[in-house]
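Q: Sequence in, structure out?
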Amino acid sequence: MQTEIRRYYQRGGETSRLDAGNGRWEFLRTWDLIGRVLPPGPLSILDVGGATGVYAGPLAAAGHAVHVVDPMPEHVAAASALPGVTAAVGDARRLAEPDASRDVVLLFGPLYHLVDRADRLAAWREAARVVRPGGLVLAATISRYATLVDGYAKGFADDPAFARMMDGALATGVHRNPDEVPNWFTTAYFHQPDELPVEVAEAGLELERIAAIEGPLWTVRHLPEILADEQRTARALTLMREVEGVPHLWGASSHLLTVARRTGS
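A: Exactly. Output:
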C-alpha cells in the first residue's frame, strides 16, 4: 500500500465515514443491494478490504461466517473485535486463502486504490480463485466523475489544486492528492462503467449485473434530512431500486456495485 494511502486511513475516517450524510446513504444502498443479491445462508464470506468491518459486522449478525482481509493493522484490530468476525492483514492481489473456499467474496475497497490495471486484474483474479463455483464476487468501484460532481457540490472545484486533480482523474482515471489535503480523497482509480465488464471477463467471471449505489441522490443538499426520516428514507431506497440498473445514470453515482459469478467447476 502506498504511503499516502496508509496515512489517509490512519486518520481513522473509516470508523465513522458511513455514519451520516453521503456516507450513510452509501451504506444503506450497499446493504440494500447485498440483501437482494446474496443467496440464502449461512454463507462463508471473505470481505477483502473490509476495513473496520462495517459490512462484516451486520453480515455476521445475520448468521454468515465472515473473514476480513485488510492491509491496515488498525482496521484488522477493529474488525476482529466484532462478534462473529475474524480478520487478518493481507493483500487483495495475493490472498492467503485456499482455492474455491468461499461462497462470496466482497471487494469493497481494493479496486479503489489499485491504480495499475494489472493490479486490479490481480485482485479480481484472486477473488475468482477463492470463490466456489457458482459463488459470487461483489465489487465496489468509484465512478470516473466522482471528483467532478463532489468538487462542485462542495465548492472545492474553485481551488486550482483541486481543479488540476479533477482534470487528471477525468483524463486518466487516476486521482492523486499530491498535497494530502485532509478533506480530499487519497490516491485512487476511478472507473468508467464500461471498464467493469471487461475486467470481470478477464478474471474468468461471468457478469450478472452492475448497479449504481448512491445514484444522483448523493448530490442532494438536504440528504441528511431525508435520512433522518424513516418514511422518506424508505421512499428514497425504493426509487433508487427502480433506476439502479439504468446505464445512463451510472456516471452520476459516486460508486457502482458489480456482481459477478464464478461458473464451471
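The domain at 3-143+190-261 is CATH 3.40.50.150 (Rossmann fold).
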